[in-house]
Write a structure and sequence with these properties.
Layout lengths: L12 H20 L7 H7 L5 H6 L4 H11 L4 E16 L2 E16 L4 E7 H5 L2 H10 L2 H20 L1
Antiparallel strand pairs: 1-2, 2-3
Helix pairs in contact: 1-7
C-alpha cells in the first residue's frame, strides 16, 4: 500500500487573501476609533502557531505567562474573528429566495488577564427572521463585517463602565 496523505494545512493564496480581507474589514473601523493593530502573522509567530483558544485555555503557569508577555509586547487585546457563510431563506413577493450571508463571530480578549472584554456576531447586526431579510438584501459582506466590528467595539465600551 503506497498511499501518501498530507495532513499538514498550508495556506493557499485564497486563504491568505481571505485573512487580509478580514483584517481590512475589521481593521478600518477599529483604526478609525483610535486602535493600533498588529499584524496577524507576527502575532502567530509569537504564540508558536497555536490557536487562540488553546493559548487561552491554560491561563495558569509559566508557559501561559510567557505567551501573554510575548503578545503583550505588541498588543493589549487579541481579536479572534471567525467567518463562515450560511443560507437564509427570505420570503419575497415572488416567492422564497435563498441568500448566502456571512456568519461572523468576533471575540476580544484582554491579554493581561485573559478576560473576554467583548463579543459580537453578524446575527446581532442582521437581526432575526423577517427583519434579517431586509438587511441581507440591502447590505453586502463588507458592510455587515464593518457593522459587526462596530458592534464589537460597542460591547467592549459597555464593559469599561
Amino acid at each position: 500500500d503506497d498511499r501518501y496523505q498530507n495532513n499538514e494545512r498550508k495556506f493557499v493564496l485564497a486563504d491568505r487573501q481571505t485573512v487580509r480581507d478580514v483584517e481590512r474589514l475589521f481593521g478600518r473601523p477599529l483604526r478609525a476609533a483610535g486602535a493600533a493593530l498588529a499584524d496577524q502573522e507576527t502575532a502567530v509567530q509569537l504564540i508558536a502557531n497555536r490557536p487562540l483558544q488553546q493559548m487561552l485555555q491554560n491561563t495558569e503557569g509559566e508557559q501561559a505567562r510567557k505567551d501573554r508577555d510575548a503578545l503583550a509586547k505588541i498588543s493589549d487585546v487579541v481579536l479572534e474573528v471567525l467567518i463562515s457563510s450560511r443560507q437564509m431563506v427570505v420570503s419575497e413577493v415572488s416567492g422564497d429566495k435563498v441568500y448566502t450571508v456571512p456568519d461572523i463571530q468576533a471575540t476580544a480578549v484582554r491579554l493581561s488577564d485573559s478576560r473576554i472584554i467583548g463579543q459580537a456576531s453578524s446575527r446581532d447586526v442582521t437581526g432575526k427572521d423577517r427583519y434579517a431579510g431586509r438587511i441581507v438584501r440591502n447590505f453586502d459582506v463588507q458592510e455587515i463585517a464593518e457593522a459587526t466590528a462596530l458592534a464589537l467595539m460597542e460591547d467592549m465600551a459597555m464593559g469599561v463602565r
